Fold these 2 entries.
Entry 1:
Amino acid sequence: MEQASWVPASVDLDRPSTARMYDYYLGGSHNFAVDREAAKAVEHVFPGMSGAARSLRTFLRRSVRYLLDQGIDQFLDLGSGIPTVGNVHEIAQAANPAARVVYVDIEPVAVAHSTAILSANPLATAIQADLRDPASVLENEDVRRLLDFDRPIGVLMVAVLHFVPDSDDPHGAIARYRDALVPGSFLAISHATVEGVQVDAEQDTARVQDVYKRTESPLIFRDRAEVAKLFDGFEVVEPGVVPLSEWRRDSDDAYTSAYVGVGRKV
Ligand SMILES: C[S@@+](CC[C@H](N)C(=O)[O-])C[C@H]1O[C@@H](n2cnc3c(N)ncnc32)[C@H](O)[C@@H]1O
């Protein structure tokens, strides 16, 4: 098994991670043989996976630009992943050089790589934490140092909540983040779905879920009503919780196997 210099000691090289599989789908180089094997098993069932990952990234870009247009200049990116092109701090600081970003991920490679590329950026950082434990995020000293909770913040949960089953109480966690935010703050969510897939695709869906069972983050799908429920306490902005391609579309991207939305705390 390869062991590059950027590999943190805490990484389990025998178990695939969703962060590194996602990096593989996006054409990145921060993944290991075990991740590539799992990612290829997903692609075998669902050859569109790389395209899906790229489509999900378009929502990240579109939602960050939307929040910037609403005057948001601080971002808390929960489940931020391994940096790739078009990271939140790049989009935000291109529009507003004073924008502040804290990346949060549970996976050590994602955090190590993020920290490395942000070393010369005093207004952005990355921390390792579990979003299911809001206190560990909200009380983190870097989070408190960089983000001003007396002003609106954009919280991003992009392509991550489908790794948080109801048994882990995503609603309770989101409520904790919501309660820490002032009105005028926002929450952006994208979430994988199989609502509307053909019956003969159900077996393929189960096979994809079987691959993710090898990771620490089993993949779960939610329908539109379930994704809308994640916005409890937020006012969902137009066009509502919709398939990814219908949300303030700025390209010919037609991917629909994810529901997305942005909510405003009122
Ligand atoms: C599919 S990637 C999405 C990355 C990024 N948000 C994007 O849109 O490109 C999901 C990320 O969520 C992270 N993740 C999964 N469960 C998490 C948790 N409980 N707390 C923090 N991060 C988590 C994974 O490590 C992975 O980096």
Entry 2:
Amino acid sequence: MIIGIDDTDSKNGMCTTYLGAVLIEKLKSYGTIIGYPLLIRLNPNVKYKTRGNAAIALPLQLKSSKDVGQIKHIVTATVEDMAVFSDENTNPGVVFIGETGVRGKMLDDLSIFSRRAVQDVLEIREALELLERYGISYHGYKNMRGLIGALAAAGFALSGLPDSTFELIAYREKKRWGTQRQIDDDSVWEADAASSPDTWDTVDYENKRIVFAPHSPDPILFGIRGKSERAVEHAFSLIRSEAVERYVVYRTNQNTDMHLIQASVSDVRDDRSYILNGRVSRSPRTIEGGHVIFEVADGRSALECAAFEPTKNFRGIIRQLHTGDEVVVYGSVKDKTLNLEKIRITSLSQHELLNPLCCGKRMKSVGRGQGYRCKKCGTAREEQVIETVQRNISPGFYEVPPCARRHLSKPLIRFEATVAASSCARWHASVQLIDPHEQERTLS
Ligand SMILES: [Zn+2]
């Protein structure tokens, strides 16, 4: 049986992954988890998300089918006990998919639904339609929005994840919730050094920060992300901290870029995430708050792209872009602006259209279509001139630092992992690479 659960947490506490950890223990005597429990990150742009937009699925091999009723009771009672019902944005959903009768059309429909829950914006009624059509047992609370993520997570447990990583999540003793986390900083840096590049996003070298522990009052002590159970367990064994109440290793779609849709600039819609090819059509400018904005176009449409202030040093790369540079941008679109997660600069323009030079200064535009004039000597020119420009960046792949990484975003270190020779490279905010998609094609 597969149990899917979503939307039990709130911005101020709890965490659906913790509820999963508690349930795993409660259900131990009824069966065993097949493989790993799943942690599924859904579309990061949906308006109603609570915190990280995480759903979980527990694929359970039952000892006896007689226990199904009892198991359902334990799950719903635990959700009712632990979910933050007081938060208006918390609308829990639970689904149970039996072991038999899952095939053909149902599997296809669930698989499509699951992917859409990560890339698209779904309605509650779409989840209800599928649940009813296939006679799937469910419990929806309040407005039942959580059924979307619960069904999506269960769907991935059935159809499998095309790409996945692992996260070991350690939880705090309840008496410590809301207090400052006691973690030995040195041990965290040591654990990272000993397990990188098989683990990532534990620390942020460039910004000299530990980034694997939240600061919210929830039950999570920290989470270690990596490519295998062994890698995250190894790092975990090296960390000294306050008592760990329990921990779980989840298989997850985090750090896989599953949310990204390859599309054209003209196809872009708000609240989805994309990989877009284009040319820089307006040079970067820094706006209030330190955000850097530029525009890409693909000949038919144009779109603003932003490296927001929290992306820190990544903005230094973005500021170096010029009109005419060819780029591939990766990120989520909100309010008609793409929030950059990564950028691949494929070609740098060596020429730039500039106002003519005169008396050691650029001429000023007289007005639209009226040419240019030197302020000092009065010389006039009709057109701008093409000049060769000195570039201070190289073509390559650049990403935001770990402190600004979104859950679903695939770090370059995972692309890099396919190239054995560079596996010893130290973490940097910007890493230059060959096209990962080409690598993947070659390897497959
Ligand atoms: Zn002049």
